[in-house]
Amino acid sequence: MIHEQSGSGPRIRAVRITPIAIQDPPLLNAAGLHAPFALRTVVELETEDGVIGISEIPGNEATNQALEEASRLVIGKDLYQLNKLQMELEAYFGKDSVTDRGDAPWDQRKLVHVFSALEVACLDCIGKLVNRPVVDLLGGRMRDSVPFAAYLFFKYEGAGGDWGFSKDPGARGWDAARQEAAVDPQGIVNQAIAMCKEYGFQSIKLKGGAFEPELEVACMQALYREFGPAMPLRFDPNAIWKPETGLKYGKVMEPILEYLEDPVRGQENMAWLRGQIKTPLATNMCTTSFDEIPSSIRLGSEDIILSDHHFWGGLRASMELSRVCNVFGRDLSMHSNSHLGISLAAMVHLGAALPRLRYALDTHYPWQSEEIITGGRFAFDNGAVHVPSGPGLGVELDRDSLQTLHQNYLKCGLKKRDDQVEMQKVHPDWTFQKIRW
């Protein structure tokens, strides 16, 4: 039985859900091609006292509808009673299953997205009420800034958004470089040089799974030649390789990789490969929920879990995951998807609170050009982001930008992410395959 609390905190009087679309270049991955716009959803919770907390999650029509349903459960609730809220949402929606995640590189579960959106917004409110940053609500900061890695992609020429496969001739520096095609080793190296010059990243990750393994491994070797052994390198083919392919190219890349992410599909195949090569294996595809932790430990399927507070059920759940990882000898870092400053702020607060952080976090932030927070885009200092100094998340909504990006959403017509459909606009016969090479 759930008892009512004896005290009473501020109650939620309004929930506002705003879907937005942000410009996204034609980036390639194992599931196909990014659309010209990436979908996000911004959630605002307002208390009876007028305090507003905000959050940002990956957007699609089904998640937005679920948020609308959840808002009816949230209105009138005590801001602090997050455990009770989570149980009520689970009773209403049902618990997410492992299969709900889907086979694509991105996570398609419902409840974890809904609760993470509400939890982050609640924590933002609470931080503002007590005049403390979210990192302090997670146990306090272990570091003042959080390192991120350069996140490279194979891509077709084009700026995305209204430009599509065309380029903005007025772009300069990294804004121009991210419009260029990168489908071979030189293109990837050029992309890395431009991104690292702009942001000062101290490690590099390449998203693979788009081309034959020989080409993608050649790109990793080209990066190693360009940047040398002092630059940690990671590679992620999004579980599209067969086990024998993972073994062959895992051995080839042993001398140059910091870690190899999801080379093969499933915990059993990951565990087998982990026993065959020396390179640490990371995942955000084979171990993606607490339900999968027991089999992960039993099999030994990975060395590093790449968490994502949007997919693991929020910031507090990610802190719990950190403790589990520490107990069972796993490292913890973070996965990323196309995002703006609210999500980045939440990632930074979480990254600052983690007791141990050996590996720089992923971020798509360099691939985005727009922003919805006041003061403009976050600054990176040698690849790291300083913890925002204000209470809560330390960022506020730019409402003009929010409305502009909401109009993008209404105009673009996209309702969910589907990289296969986008790829078929270029290659009509192309289909997604869970395992391709």
Question: Can you characterise this structure?
Answer:
With 437 residues, the chain is an alpha/beta fold. The protein is 37% helix and 15% strand. It has helices spanning 61-74, 82-93, 111-130, 134-137, 174-177, 185-199, 213-227, 243-253, 267-274, 293-299, 309-312, 315-327, 341-353, 399-412, 419-424, and strands at residues 12-23, 28-29, 32-33, 37-47, 52-58, 145-147, 150-153, 204-207, 233-236, 259-261, 281-283, 304-307, 331-334, 384-386. Strands 7-8-9-10-11-12-13 form a seven-stranded parallel beta sheet. α9 (267-274) links the parallel β10 (259-261) and β11. α2 (82-93) runs antiparallel to α3 (111-130), α6 (185-199) packs across α7 and α7 runs parallel beside α8 (243-253). It is globular. Mean pLDDT is 93; it is low at 1-6.
